[in-house]
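hey can u run this one w/ calcium ion bound, need the structure tokens asap thx
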Amino acid sequence: MVQVPYQLVLALIVIVAPSVTYSTSCDKSRKVLTDSWGIISDGPIGENYTHDTHCEWLIKANSTDQFITLKFLYMNTECSYDYVFVYDGYSFQAPLLGTFSGKNDPQNIVASSGYMLILMYSDTNYMLDGFQAEYSISNCPSNCTHHGQCVAHTCICDTDWGGEDCSRKLCANQCSGHGDCIEGQCLCRQGYVGQYCSLSDHDQDREGNRWHTLSQDVIEARTSHSAVYVDDTDALYVFGGFNLNLVLGDLKVYWFNSSRWEDEDGNVLESGKLSHGHLVDASALAALLNKEREKESRWGLRTPTILQNIIYSLTDNNTWNYRHHGEGSNPGPGQLRLYRGSRQANGSEVVRPGPRFGHAACRYPGGFLLYGGKLPDGSLSSELWLYNVTARSWDLRALGSNFTPPPLSKHTLTYAPDTEHVYLVGGSRQHGEFSNRIYRIKLSTVGGDEQWTELVPRGGPGLEFRVTAHSTVYDVYSKSLLIYGGILTQVRYTYV
Ligand SMILES: [Ca+2]
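ok here u go:
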């Protein structure tokens, strides 16, 4: 039998055992955690949380430059009734990073304010086993996922890796064999598009029934926005939406021929390899560069070229500023994006729609139309905007209409080319009531009268249901509006 020396066993125990305390049990108080690693949970595994739970955990880093990563180990709460909320800050006014409910497997969440506040809430009945999550504090987001170096709280990614935490493989799948990898981005050969050049524009080469990644992490993630494809320009126009914290009012254009995004002014947007909103300290970079040069001379090796390129470009030109102002990162707390409002400074001329979400948009000759939506102050809009893709200009329409449909959100807007009318169907009204109305309008090309009218179906009482958050298409063959899905309430008619 092999005798294991006592000292060796002891040494192993000291190394393996974590030096942190587990923070468990949820007792309606706020727990403040300052260790660099820990586990939080509503209670022991296998035991349900209690009803009427309200528990808070505040994780505090040593400085506001550090990052806190939360990784869920398991999660199971009563769906839509019991929640876990995660904030990037120390109060409930801080930006919300996520809201989780049900049997869920959330992705890792990163707070960049130096604080992360987690709230678990349950209602008064039906309990499940809750959640367990592991947190860690690091100088860079997710420690640069082992694909880069952390310099002054910013990940400098290795060649072939990108994103704020270097977790994204650049030029994946060797650009599908249809492009060249130039500075971490696939430059597709003629006839191929998409982030990895996987989509062919030759019909004979096109493999059907398959999803392609066209773009990721370039424009700000959002929901309840509108997206319209315009064949004249072979581009997708994305307007507005909601990013869980801010209402957006930007127009972003994806060009299929170049696989690139542009902003409204025609500036090309890139997914920055350096996309975090901190300026890298020049002296820290110089120190790193010197270290790399030393290594190079000592071992006769070439050091990571992307790293050097970035460092040189920082001193040479405005590459950093350009990337820094790209759309790869969310605005920090209190750093609201500013958009031009609906009116110019002189208060008279209308320029463009303000921020909104839950609006509807549709293709229209020359560009696209947009109606309604929820504004940052919570009110709904009844504006009808036309965007001209050639002139790159917005125009507020139907201003002279004697009748205007109500302010709406989650409605649909559909153009029927053969009737030249645009149809507005259903949606939610200001106080949450669903609409069962259909309106239509025909725009004038010569500056003539533009009148909204309510469409009353022949021989029936109108839509027999109120509907919101649905979709609508126009079928040219049957000359019909086809309405699909959505949330319904029945309409009760009284006949007299
Ligand atoms: Ca419950």
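The pocket of calcium ion is lined by residues 78, 81-82, 122-123, 125-127 (CB under 6 Å). anyway lmk if its weird
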